[in-house]
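Thread title: Can someone regenerate the structure for this chain?

I was given the following input by a collaborator and told the matching structure tokens would be attached. They weren't. Posting the sequence so someone can regenerate them.
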Amino acid sequence: MQQILAEGTTTNFLVPNATIFVVSLIFLVILGFFYRFIVPPLTKAMAERDEMNRKQVEERDAAQRKLAEAKERYDSALADARAQATAIKDEARADAQRIREDMRAETDREVAEIHRRGAEELAGQRTRAGQELRGQIGGLSADLAGRILGRPVDHDDETVRRFLAELDERQTAGGQR
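Best answer:
Regenerated them for you:
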């Protein structure tokens, strides 16, 4: 950095002709130019970028909160839907059981009605058969009595009526035992 002259003296190349001051002045002018025209737009761009990053972080956080809330609502709605589905299935089972019991009761009523009508019809047939048999017995007993007595006996005769009454009494007495 020092230059040796031919005469044995050394010189600093910046000091003798004041170049250091000129270079310093140019440096300060360039520094001032940068500070005045370059730094403010860069600072503004960096501030905008920082603000944009801050907003993006806030939006991301808000989106995550909304996502968590939506997931919570979804899980809640899903649990409610499952509970409703279970309730509907239970209600359907109860309805099916009730319908089954109603059908069974209706069938039992119909069977009881059929039995009742059958018993009534059987009792009616028994009564008619008894009356037919009495009529036939009366006619046969009159014929038999006529053969035994040797004279014709009318089936409206008092003896036939008494005989039929005795048969009824025996039948009633035999049915009560």
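The longest strand covers residues 2-4.
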